[in-house]
Amino acid sequence: MKTKDYLSATTLSKKTAATLESLEKGESEKLIILKNNAPKAVLLSMEYYEALEEEMEDLRLTALALARLQTFDVKEAISHDAMMERFGR
Question: Which long-range contacts (CB under 8 A, 24 or more apart) does 24-31 make?
Answer without folding.
Answer: 28/4, 30/5, 31/5, 31/6, 31/7
